[in-house]
Each structure stands twice: as structure tokens, then as C-alpha cells.
């Protein structure tokens, strides 16, 4: 529930309705995909949304690279890295273009198909409320506003998106081995090894990309791994997260307050259910 | 304030509707809306929060519109030899690097906006929206909260149903606006918005359709093949498709920005779809919707949030 008493909230509402255009012109047109809570949270740490920004890149992959081979599928790994890198650069450019200092709450959509990798990033450009034009390259982050505010309070700053990917062939077993193992409970070492190989390469690349932009670490790492839906003997491992650096004052201890909620769980009703 | 104390049926005077004005609201709907019992799509917490603000629900209002349009009006059969006359704003053009003309070679490519699709979508959405507003005006509403809009296929892909619904509300003591304001928000999210100094103006939505007529390079890259001249290198970026993905989102955002003026768009939701319409012919569509708000007062600086650890 709102923190304001009902009378003053009602008075504010009536006042806004009496003078619908009273302060129009004082504000600045902006777009954002943030919720009200997220905008208030941003305001509370001295930031504000500027505009909705996006970056996209599609990179091609050779025909046939997924089917047969051993070791890493270098073409696919490179295409993935280049597609994400280009999308990051483009959303960063859009952010700088609208006067943002960085992007938060960014959705990361990466799809890999047999012949191309698509990377699409959409988020809200933000800036400190009392600030001039951005200095340096804007940061790009998939942290939620809540995490961004918390990170900010802890004395750390986002630096950019760190990412890494690797695609590795899981070598097919020999026919005789496959027949022998059909009635056994055995580890499929070819897949285990492929997963390990893909993981090491992807994680190493993600950390290398963080170091490249001068970060000290990566938080909120998202991992996606498994066989490709169009090539079952190819294992993909992708990892990305927000690269962070300590702010000028260094790490700040948050000292959270312990709370014991007394409220019962409320069953939420979704208005969409009215559509059947 | 009587809102929290008198959450019951609204006063008769607020139900009278626009005096003497012609309304297109169906007779049955009109009768239902004038019944002494109100209906609402609000959850109980949202209902309680609305009453807290002095807002009383007066009726669940809805608008429908079913549209039929031809997705394939601009045939790609003309591609490669001549330009389709009905195409809209050309967003970018691409030339073949091979330097020869042939009817079976895609010697040029273009990404262009399809304004006829945008206009048809807008017509469907706005008709449903206006019909919802008519019902809201019928019950003397000041605003419509918790708007939910859906677009779905009806019978087949060329027939689209637009459906908007929301809860019409009356704010005690406030003047009746010429047009009710509307918002996707309700309950405490709306209370927080007003508390922060923002008043909803209306819900806004835009749909953009970008048609991609592939140049030979795009076609080759998306097939995972190469050309006989070695001019298309596998692993290259598919520039035309990358740009189409960006253009659909940017144009949708720009369409929304055109109506915003100095106001802001809150809680934007973006839906993007890509589909292949034929060989070398695809469409990237983007729908962007959210609540247009204007700032009516400067929000007092909020205190920095206190981190908590929950014991449960």
C-alpha cells in the first residue's frame, strides 16, 4: 500500500485532474520499460530513466559446421562473440546518443540457428539526475533496477556486459560401443567432456571480456548450456553477466536490517484471466 | 474523503452519462452498466488501493474490434525487376556487389516500413479503445484503470481481434474530464505513480511492420552458403537483417515519442516477431505499448532504500 495518507493522496489526484496540463513542459519526454517501483528506486539513488534503447546484430554461420567434426566449433563461437559484441556496441551508441550514462534492466535475447546467430538487447538508458553529458563509454548491464540500486549502495559500479560462448562437438561413439552401452547404465563421457570443454572456454572468454573493459569481476552470471536443438552432437555453453568495478569510495558495507514480516500471503488475482 | 468510507455503488448522478449525447454503446451494455451493482476487473488489493486514493470503481468496460487485412498485399513476385508501388518509407537500401542484373538474382534489397499495416493495426486498436471509452463515458467515469489489451487471431491469420478492457473509476470531488484518462496500472502501482508526481494521461500503443526484401548477400548469408565469386564471406554480419531488427524497434519507439510531447512513457512493453513470408521476403514487426504520464509535481526526493534480511 502507498505510504502517503489517503487524504493527501486523494488531494494530489484531484489537483492533477483539475489542472491536467499544469506542469506540462516542465518534464522531458522519455520512454522506459521500467515499472513504477523501478523508477522510484532509481530516483531514490539519484538516477532517472532517459529512453528505451536497443541493439541488434545477426551474424552468419557456415552451412554444415554443426554436423561432423571434433573439438570446438570455432566458426559458431566466433559468430556468437561478434554478434553479441556488435549488439552491445550499438545499444551503447544509442544510449550515448540520448544522453544516457548506462543501460539497466536490459533483456538479452540470443538465438542460435543453423545458419546464423541473432543477438538482440533492449533496455532503458539511465543517467544521474544531476549530471551533465556522459563521460566515457556508457555501461551496458542486464541488472535489474533493484540490483543496480543495491550495487550502487554497496559502492560498486557496473562497467559493461561480460560474455563468452563456446560450441563443441561431442564426438559420436563407435558403433560397437553404442551397441554395448545400450543395455548399460554408463556415463557418456563424450558428452561430459564436451560440456567441460565448452564451459571452460566460455567462462574463460567471459572473464577475459570483463578484464578487457577494466572490470574487477562479474556478477549475476547467467548460464545456458546443452545440446543444440538442431544438432544433438553439438554442445553449446553461453555465459554472460555484468562486469563491475569498485566505485571511488570503495566497497560500502550495507548492514541490512533484519525484519520479520507479519502479513499473510495474499493470493493475487490476474485481470488477464478475465479473457478466459 | 468519502472514497474509503463509501465503497458501495456510485451515486446516481455519476451514472447518468453524457447528457443528451449520442452513444454507440449497445443497448444491453448500457442497461448492464446502469445497474445498481458495479463490476470491476480489479484484484482485491488493487480495489482496496483504489478506495484508499478516493477512487471508486463504477464498471468493467470493454471494447472490441475485429479487423481483416491482407498481409500479402505487397507481393514479392515483383522483386528483383521492379519496385512495388505501394511500399512505404524506405528505411535502408542494399546493392548487390556482383554488378549484374538478372531476373533470378536479387540485385537490390530494401527494408521498408509498411504504413498500411501500421494504419490497419492502429485502426483496430483505436476502435476498440474508443469503444471502451464510450462505455466509460456512459457511466460517467473519470478514468479507466487496469487496462488489459489483447490482440489475437480469429478464425485465421488474416483476421485479428482487438480487445481492451479496464475498470472505469470515479474520483470523488474531481471534475469530470472531457475524455476519461486511461492507464495499464491499477491499485498500489497507480497510487505510487501519483505519489511520485505523475498522472496517467492515456494508454498508448504502436505497431510497426518492417518488410525485408533481401539482397543477394543477405539471402546467401542466411542460407549458410557462399557465392561463386568469393564476394560473400561466411561469418560476415547479415547487415540487412540486423538493421531491420533495430529499425522495427526504433520506429515503434519514435511513433510513440511523436505523441508524447513532454510527457513520458511508463512501463513500456515491447513485443517483436519475425517471420518469413516467402523466399527472400520476411517481415519484422514490433508492438510497443505503455502508459503515457505527465508530471504534475516534483516528487519529493525519496530516501535511499534500506536493505533488509527477511526472517520467515
Task: Based on the model shown, name its key terms.
heterodimer; A: 276 residues; alpha+beta; 4-stranded mixed sheet; 3-stranded antiparallel sheet; 6 helices; B: 312 residues; 10 strands; 27% helix; 34% strand
Description:
- The complex is a heterodimer of chains A (276) and B (312).
- Chain A is of the alpha+beta class and 276 residues long.
- Chain A is 31% helix and 32% strand.
- Chain A contains 6 helices and 9 strands.
- In chain A, the strands form 2 sheets. A 4-stranded mixed β-sheet of chain A has the order 2-4-3-5.
- Chain A is elongated.
- The mean pLDDT of chain A is 87.
- The model of chain B is unreliable at 1-21 and 73-85 (pLDDT under 50).
- Chain B is α+β, with helices and mostly antiparallel strands and 312 residues long.
- Chain B is 27% helix and 34% strand.
- Chain B contains 7 helices and 10 strands.
- The longest helix of chain B has 24 residues, at 115-138.
- Chain B has helices at residues 12-15, 27-33, 44-52, 115-138, 187-195, 216-223, 239-260, and strands at 55-68, 90-95, 108-113, 143-154, 156-171, 181-182, 198-213, 264-278, 281-295, 308-310.
- At the A-B interface, α1, β1, α2, β2 and α3 of A face α3, β4, β5, α5 and α6 of B.
- β1 (30-31) of chain A pairs parallel with β8 (264-278) of chain B, so a sheet runs across the interface.
